[in-house]
Amino acid sequence: MPEGLSPRTRYYYRFRVGSWTSPTGRTRTSPAAGDASGSLRFAAVSCQAYHDGYFTALRHLAQEGDVDAVLHLGDYLYEYAVDAHGGDRADPSLELPDRFNKETVTLEDYRLRYSLYHRDPDLQAAHAAHPWIVTWDDHEVENNYADEIPDGSPPEAFLARRAAAYRAYYENLPLRPPQQPSGSSLQLYRRLHFGKLAQLDILDGRQHRDDQSAGDGWQVPTAETGRPDRTMLGTTQERWLEDGWKNSKAVWNLVPQQTVLSRRRNRTTGPFPLSMDAWDGYPAARRRFLEAARTAGVKNLAVLTGDVHVHYAMDIKEDFDDSGSRSVGVELVTTSVASGGDGVAKPGDWQTFLDANPHMKFYDGRRGYVLLTLDQRQLRADYRTVDVVTRPGAPVTTAASFVSRAGDPGLQPL
Predict the structure, then answer these.
(1) Cβ proximity of 409 and 389 under 8 Å
(2) Residue 309's domain is classified under what CATH number?
(3) 3-state SS of the chain?
(4) Strands 378-386 and 367-374
(5) What is the mean pLDDT of the chain?
(6) What is the mean pLDDT of the segment spanning 319-343?
(7) In whole angstroms, what is the distance from residue 88 CA to residue 340 CA?
(8) 274 lies in a domain?
(9) Is residue 121 part of a domain?
(10) Segment Disordered: which positions (predicted)?
(11) Of 188, 409, 208, which is closest to residue 318 (Cα–Cα)?
């Protein structure tokens, strides 16, 4: 690991192996520990299914200037089969061997899938342009798995599959030695500091959770759903998060994580189905999360989320049943890079979601990423979108922008 680097400085690097020299990449060091000056800029991305389309959004992200770090919020790759022409990319010039046209299970499978993704020129460009901070969701292993409980794998074989997936994840993504896996476990949650402007608590909401109740999809909650001991993060990670918040001296406390924290209803009259895979399926865990933030005195909380293949901007309410209750933070949900294929600005449930969730300030179904700019006064979120990913080259636009003022939680449109 490089030593003696200056804070808040742009560096360039390349790798040499034998006679081969890599293209030049660039990175940026974080501010010094006591530095609260200037501003920071992050980009939030998620869900890049190769077989669903081109990574056009990442090409545009590579061209964004002065990004301190890209925050990848999960589903870096997908375990599903990819046919010879790249699925919905339908690239006639591409002739992938049959070994990709199968679901990933073994270590070789996962290593090959990373090699396929890393051949993508747009993904290469984004990695070369900016430093990346990563966390996973489910598809890096298997859809909707929960801790040691698989969604489709034979239970007796799942831990071997998870160990293979975790090993390949560590080998192929920018993780530090403390994240080196041990068998089917990997210490992924960790804390990073960007001077006194931002503390990043990167969560693992997949490896330590209880199994989903009432199935993995949208279901009316059951008594099991509301059980007070159910956990999304596990007891150890919950305590680690609360202790970190209590000791935080940062202006902004950012929480990069996987699934939607805020409540989402998909109808305006009850009974109300909720997403059992998101925090809605773990209401007691969400209450503990918000209570820990309150107890620690966190004033500027921003939860950064992926998973759902749409953009959301939401106020995190003290009481989601009372739209007039106090906002305790904001949740910025980034859409997918490619997963789900071409999107639309207003999906069919667009108006229903906005009506059913007054704390939801924005909803867009296109592909893209979120740019976050923060300083001592405010956090700004710019929702960037591309209209098409099933063919390359779509332009990028800013669909909406919001700010949250320091000390005054809640999103205001610009």
Answers:
(1) no
(2) 3.60.21.70
(3) CCCCCCCCCEEEECCEECCEECCCEEEECCCCCCCCCCCEEEEEECCCCHHHCCCHHHHHHHCCCCCCEEEECCCCCCCCCCCCCCHHHCCCCCCCCHHHCCCCCCHHHHHHHHHHHHCCHHHHHHHHHCCEEECCCCCCCCCCCECCECCCCCHHHHHHHHHHHHHHHHHHCCCCHHHCCECCECCCCEEEEECCCEEEEECCCCCCCCCCCCCCCEECCCCCCCCCCCCCCCHHHHHHHHHHHHCCCCCEEEEECCCCCCCCCCCCCCCCCEECCCHHHCHHHHHHHHHHHHHHCCCCEEEEECCCCCEEEEEEECCCCCCCCCEEEEEEECCCCCCCCCCCCCCCCHHHHHHHCCCEEEEECCEEEEEEEECCCEEEEEEEEECCCCCCCCCCEEEEEEEEECCEEEEEEC
(4) antiparallel
(5) 97
(6) 96
(7) 10
(8) yes
(9) yes
(10) 208-230
(11) 409
Separation of alpha carbons 181 and 140, rounded Å: 14
**Band of the pLDDT at 152, cuts 50, 70, 90?**
confident
Asked whether the predicted pLDDT for residue 323 surpasses 90, the reply is no
Instruction: Tell me whether residue 214 is in a domain.
Output: yes
Instruction: State the residue range of the domain holding 65.
Output: 44-413
pLDDT in the model for residue 265: 98
Residues 131-150, mean pLDDT to the nearest whole number: 97
pTM of the model as a whole = 0.97
Q: What is the pLDDT of residue 2?
A: 80
Residue 171 contacts residue 129 (beta carbons within 8 Å): no
pLDDT average, residue stretch 127-142: 98
Domains contained in the chain, number: 1
| 11 part of a folded domain | no
pLDDT one-digit tens code per residue, 167-180: 999 999 999 999 99
